[in-house]
Amino acid sequence: MKHDMPQPGPERTQVNQTVPRLEIRNLSRAFGGQVVVDHVSLKVMPGQVTCLLGPSGCGKSTTLRMIAGVEMQDSGEIFVDGQLICDTVFRVPPERRHIGLMFQDFALFPHLSVGDNVAFGLKGPADRKRARVEELLDKVGLRRFIDEYPYQLSGGEQQRVALARALAPKPRIMLMDEPFSGLDNRLRDDIRDETLEVLKAEDAAVLLVTHEPEEAMRMADEIALMRNGKIVQQGAPYNVYNAPVDRQAVAFFSDINVIRGKVQGALTDTPFGQFLAPGVPDGAEVDIVIRPQHIKLDLDRGGRGPNPTVQDGVAARGEVVRARFMGAESLVEIRMDYDGSVLKATVPNVFLPSLGKPLWLMIRRDRCFVFPAAGA
Ligand SMILES: Nc1ncnc2c1ncn2[C@@H]1O[C@H](COP(=O)(O)OP(=O)(O)OP(=O)(O)O)[C@@H](O)[C@H]1O
């Protein structure tokens, strides 16, 4: 098959808000018979940041490398602005894809000034190049360093120069692979916010790879949650966090508590009251999954707890087996009277109960997820 089509180029770019800037369809790749990317499909619109989020080794970087063109897929297609740039036969070479790259080891050229680093990928008359370099250094707040050398800059400043360098040729797509992982925590938050602002202003479509849920939540318009080479869920951070597809998806974002129950008549009884389990056959087990911040604690009043409510259901009693002060909150672990299991609750830091103290737990029913029991 021969594809005869014009090559993509920035000068031909027309922003079309209905055609994805980047689209991959059914991208797959195996190494030595082991499938590491398995029919991955996603779309990124201009000006949108999508985070490919997943544990180490799930195939995120391989997906990014195929889009960049430095790795070939075994099957599937890649489109930019609706035009095919790569399938298993046709392939636009990496340098003609107009894709900006920013990786963790973003190394600037040490022998070039900051200005020359940013100008590196630019073509055209010197005054136009200079204007673009100044514009970008302004955006990242580093214009004053234009004639300095990388070694004179802090890690965070170097990161911002790397961002300016990647954006200088006005890439239509930016691929970022764990770009902030070399920075310390406080600095990282600032750089993330600044980077986001610059990326939005440049209107590139951004695909950012990370294994950190906080980073994805902070940066992404859309999260694509990846596991074992597949995208298991995709959506706005709010939806992925609040309507997870399975127990593992909940656990990827936070600690979890699991209460197992047996289903009878689409309901399951628990010490916290009944839960709906629609579509689950009688006798099957379900896991009721709840995050520690959605467990409420109440004091024991001579062996009695709070009255049941519609929102929080019935209270169940337990005893504190561990309480740790975490700064903004305390993590309290409670051994439950009903089966000896230990549930975790996080509460604002003013509350730090002593060991052995009896407490009553209530769970936010609207924040519980009911899934078929894992391994059942
Ligand atoms: N060139 C290669 N040859 C053989 N195996 C590879 C190659 N590249 C990646 N792999 C394997 O493919 C799997 C996915 O790797 P990949 O780097 O895409 O994962 P990742 O999700 O980006 O992980 P990390 O966050 O640790 O970088 C891993 O098991 C890795 O060892």
TrEMBL record:
PROSITE patterns: ABC_TRANSPORTER_1 (PS00211), ABC_TRANSPORTER_2 (PS50893). The keyword Transport applies. It comes from the Bacteria. InterPro entries: AAA+_ATPase, ABC_SmlMolc_Importer, ABC_transporter-like_ATP-bd, ABC_transporter-like_CS, ABC_transpr_FbpC, Mo/tungstate-bd_C_term_dom, P-loop_NTPase, Transp-assoc_OB_typ2. The keyword Iron applies. One of its GO terms (molecular function) is ATP binding. Residues 22-253 form the ABC transporter domain. Keywords: ATP-binding, Cell membrane, Ion transport, Iron, Iron transport, Membrane, Nucleotide-binding, Transport. GO terms for cellular component: ATP-binding cassette (ABC) transporter complex. GO terms for biological process: quaternary ammonium group transport. This is Iron(III) transport system ATP-binding protein.
